[in-house]
Amino acid sequence: MPSIFLPVVFLLAAWNKHLTQSVYIHEVITHPPKENTTFSACPQFCVCDFSRHEASCSSYYKGFSLRSIPRTFTVRRLNLFGGLSSVPLEIQLMNGLEELDLSRNALTVIAALPVGNPMLLQALDLSSNDIVNISPGAFSKFVNLKMLYLSENNLQVFPKDVFQGLINLKTLHLSFNNIHSIPVGVFGELHSLKELDLRSNYIHWIAEGTFNNLTNLKTLQLSENNLRTLSGDIVLDMTSIDVALYGNPWDCSCELDSFLKFLAVHKENISNVDQLVCYSPSKLIGTKLVNLFQSDLKCEVPIITEISSSLEVAVGSAVTIHCKGSLETYAIGYWVTPEGVKISHKYYKEILDQMNVTTHSHLKYKHNRDDFSEVTISENNSLKLTNFRGVFNGTYACVMINSHGNDTASLTLTSITKLFDTKWVGMIIGGLSALSALVLGLLVGTIKLCAIHVCKCSCILVERYDKPKMETKYTFEEYTDDQNSVSRSLDYQDSYTDSFQNEESLLKVPLNSPIARTPRSSPRKCATPTPEDDLEKGRGNTNNTLNEVKVRLEKKMEKVRSRVHSIRESGSQYLITIKDTGSIAANRVKAGVVMGVEQVKSGVMSMKEFCGTGEMAQTVSVMSVNTDVDSEEKSMIITKMTTL
Known about the structure:
Blueprint lengths: L1 H14 L30 E4 L4 E5 L18 E5 L17 E3 L7 E2 L12 E3 L7 E2 L12 E3 L21 E3 L21 E3 L21 E3 L10 H5 L5 E3 L5 E2 L5 H10 L3 E2 L6 E3 L23 E4 L3 E4 L4 E3 L1 E3 L6 E5 L5 E2 L5 H6 L7 E5 L5 E6 L5 E4 L7 E9 L2 E12 L5 H34 L5 E2 L15 E3 L4 E3 L18 E2 L23 H7 L4 H70 L6 E10 L6 E10 L1
Parallel strand pairs: 2-3, 3-4, 4-6, 5-7, 6-8, 8-9, 9-10, 10-11, 11-12, 12-14, 13-15, 17-26
Antiparallel strand pairs: 1-2, 16-19, 18-24, 20-21, 20-25, 22-23, 23-24, 25-26, 27-30, 28-29, 31-32
């Protein structure tokens, strides 16, 4: 593998001899390379070109150290890639270093670089890292540095003297960062600079005089930013250079007049000039700048078209208030707090400074050790207040401003103490209380049922009671006129069974009671507790329990017998009363029948005498039905009478 890999590297080096000044590994090695066998002095994890004094090393692998490079090998070009979070101090041991490539690492802060002989360094590549801050004067010792690459990092702002001392710098790349403004004079010492790349950032404004000292500048990349206009001074600096300005949201107002005149004369210096279009005002959106006329550019004072209403804000909560201007006119917005502090987004701070408006981009109020409130503002001029307190009470003014004037609107914020709704709190507490009571009741009931089933077993015996039945017999009575007497025989038989011994009742008798074993009852089966169970459940002595039950049962039986006896005596007396009542009724019926027969007989005799006929003999049958009201039993009596 090493014998094949090294010739490939050397071929690439020969092919790029006039294009590059060092050898790079274009593909990340996924496994540790073996020690170089061709050049035994080259350290592990490195590829060396002794003829060009180059070393390309990967710091991904554990155990890599620049100390393994022998002192006899003078390194002029060093490429370190692979997860470095800081610049190795061993670099200062390389006194002949001319090109240093630290790209594709994880560097975040750049301070003074530990290079052995900074006067020899000509190229420094710090691209594709996570750099957010560069210390002032970090490159001041590299007076012969010609190329500096800082692209693809997280730079937002940098100090004014960050490029101090780079008097021989010819190429500066700052593309694909988060830069939103360029400090005035930051390029003041870069007299030799020929190429400046600022594309794909968030630059919205360039101050006058920014490029005045760049007398040798040939290429300027400002595409894909947030530029809306360019001042006349900036335009004059572009007359002899190639400029890229596409991808910016141009505001086609009267402020663009100087740049429009520049386009008419030097549009051949502008790359992709047809891609420069208007983003405002609304009536010119999409119009190409090369097709505009001076009469199309209007100068208007901004107008606030939307602002939030006054609010009452609960203490401790967050609130966001909004303010927007008319789309017809471009303007920059900021807020003025009740204390008179002006707040604007950090992107517009430098522009407002040029208008003599000093603003802050963030406010913080500390109430105690761990409690604080903040005021922040977004790019679209929305103000957010977190952890609202009484210090925020008052009137907030929104200001929209441009070079032609401004407009102001205001609102009021008032802090209130947020109280809980007692109605809902009461309902919640009541519901929880009811639920707790229900759960407690279910728990107690369950425990009680378990205790009953475990500690007690009972059986229910039911004895039958047969009520004696009464039978009624019917007899006939005959009356004869010859005897003038009535004979009646009435047979009444009452059978009352003396075998009745107990009334109908429900008796709860223990399983071991002798009554529970009588053949007249069918006891329910119950499991007889064992002595071990009695001991475990604490029932005590079984014999004592049975004796106590027997005594109670005898008392109950005595009460039952006395009750049955009283019922029997009451029933006998009731039957005698019924019998006497029936006899009296029968006698009355009998007397009525005799009287009726006598009347019929007298009537027949009168008819006989009236008609003059002979003796007339006749038999008459009379049937009577008696009903007992109490027992609802019926008896029929048939009587026959013969007259002569």
